[in-house]
Amino acid sequence: MPRVTPSTAVSPMPFRSPTVHAVAALSLTQLIGWGATFWLPAVTGPAMASDLGLALPMVMAGPTVMLVVMAMVSWPLSGIFERHGARPIMVLGSPLGAAGLLVMGLANGPEAYVLSWIILGLAGASMLTTPAQIAVTEIAGEKARQALGVLILAGGLTSTIMWPLTGLLQAQWGWRTTTLLYAALMLLVCTPLHWATLARRPREKSAETMTAEPAPIDRPRFALLALSFAANGFVTWGFALTIIILFEAAGLDRASALAAAAFIGVAQWAGRMVDFLGGRRWSSFVTGLAASALFPLSFIVLLLTSNFAGAMLFATLYGVASGVTTVARATLPLQIFPAGAYARASSQLAVPLNLAFAAAPPVFTAILTSAGPHAALWLAMVISIFAFCALLGLLLLHRRMQRV
């Protein structure tokens, strides 16, 4: 698999190419996979809590359990992805996800409910985001960055599509039937698509490379990349559940706070589109650094303003930065590490990322309740500056090592 640079990803993918089929299939399976698991309690949580006799915070902790399990198994899976490719693991991950949803749909107490999220964590590490991105690079070759951009653009619509659909299904048949229906989709739609459209043998896995030593991953560059992305991921996932509270603390009424928060999603999608359109001319370092610089700037705006215009400016800067960073997480390893090590590096990077994602919401909520909104904003700004410095240090180190 050739390393992707701005000069190599210039020609469009043929409409009937295997890459287009794989990206289209993965866009659908990621939509179902994330919408039926992590994002499910956002809609069904209150009904689950009432039916299972659980406190709502415990129900909402399910996705956190899922992310922690994903982090725990991502590193062991990295070598399997590298040796065997993404297809066999994703084909097994889909029915595993269906099993987790089946356990959830039939749960009658906290033990089965927690068990369902543990199973979904194992499934998520096998079929969500990182495996999908590995699968794309295996089949797309030199057009990997372009294909990843399309996949991530589609992923940005998950909550927009799945939340209303889940709400409609729950209103008609209840949360249990909705969950079981999603289990059927995971088994009958995702599994066949992963089987039929993904590469049976990654491009780089020739007989020689199968017997050669694994391509090395430079640990200093890996550490800087992991620190930068985990820091920004901690901020964005921490704000996901607290941003409306922060807007209201800045002086906005409820309607204005909801409007500004909703606009973040639009700006995130626009940020993904900016990277997709400009990625043919700019390296992932350029877009990633620009996005990292926008994060602290957005927090300064929110700290200094207390009106709707300021909130909208924050939402624009923050949303665009978040959208571009999402793409950079997938594409920067293509520039930094050897082509044959992408699967292993991406899986290992998923460990700090998923731990940061899991820890962020409870930490930010605790800070909001104990120290106030401004303390949360100052913490976010400091962490985002650290993330920018780590990424800048990575760029300088990468250029120095290329000159050697």
Overview of this protein structure:
The chain is mostly helical. The longest helix has 40 residues, at 158-197. The protein has helices at residues 18-36, 41-52, 56-60, 62-84, 86-105, 110-127, 130-140, 144-155, 158-197, 207-211, 219-240, 243-249, 254-278, 284-304, 308-336, 342-371, 373-403. The protein has 2 domains: 18-211, MFS general substrate transporter like domains (Growth Hormone, Chain: A, Up-down Bundle), CATH 1.20.1250.20; 219-403, Growth Hormone, Chain: A (Up-down Bundle), CATH 1.20.1250.20. The chain has 17 helices and no strands.
SSE topology:
Elements: H1 18-36, H2 41-52, H3 56-60, H4 62-84, H5 86-105, H6 110-127, H7 130-140, H8 144-155, H9 158-197, H10 207-211, H11 219-240, H12 243-249, H13 254-278, H14 284-304, H15 308-336, H16 342-371, H17 373-403
- Rg from alpha-carbon coordinates: 21 Å
- The coarse silhouette is globular
CATH class of the largest domain: Mainly Alpha
State the secondary-structure class.
mainly alpha
Beta strand count:
0
